Protein: Ornithine carbamoyltransferase
Amino acid sequence: MHLLTLCELEREDVLSIIEDGLYFKKHRGREEPILAGKTIAMIFESPSTRTRISFDIAIRELGGHPLVLNAGETHLGKKESVKDTARVLSRYVHGVVARVKDHRVLEELAEYGSIPVINALSNLSHPCQILADLLTIYEYKGRFKGLKLSFLGDGNNICNSLMIGGALVGMDVYVATPRGYEPNGMFVKKSFEIIERYGEGSLTLTNDPIEAVEDADIVYTDVWISMSDKNKSLEEVMKVFPPYQVNEKLLSYAKDDVIVMHCLPANRGMEITDEVLDGEHSVVYDEAENRLHVQKAIFKYIYSRD
Ligand code: CP
Ligand code: NVA
Structure:
């Protein structure tokens, strides 16, 4: 199986990945070598700190071998079609973790290869990040039902995946973006389908940051210009995004025990202030740590099904 968008998962799958992630966190150093004899190719078309390091360490700690392939080190998509690369990689390695600029590359790797493909971030989604975030929310709040999760800023890859993840666990998700920067329509549609399927949770799209943050249990933000945003200028962004900045004033509308999340890297002083990022409500370094534990749970989930 593949993990490209989170839409592949049912609620019980997400809950079991969270449970396993918590187990791996508690028992670090005592993992079963579930990747013994397996080599996992890690393709990175764009830079990464957390995803690359946490996957590399997770693979080693599960007894496998990571093979890092940085941009320009293979023929992928340039001198060779994605289809051929997928077929050839499938003869050598046992899985691919890939960070790509264009989500269609992941879909092609999955379609033409015969090994699991895991999305390490694309222009459209970042499923592994959101699984770690859900684990972090569970650690702090002990439940999902009835929680109001607000995402502020750009309707980007993180926002798309957060809507799906939130719907899968039944949270009430609010997304506040400037007009014209709403999340991807396909992910919005999928989120509503999931909400309907389980009869729990909700999704509200708004342009009003205060409506989103009012009484929120979780406030989440991300950069206003993503790696894949080739044509977005700072000038354009500064015209419309500042009201969505997560600062102490905006946060005062949330619940007293609100947690503040950011996938990192952050642009301090832009989408979030230093005071909030470094403040008592921030759980951003827990999110970063939990990437490691959740990557292990993702491998366990995928290879127990393959
Ligand atoms: N959050 C995240 O994916 O960070 P990196 O870009 O450092 O991997
Ligand atoms: N939206 C950001 C997330 C980085 C982890 C980006 O794509 O650059």
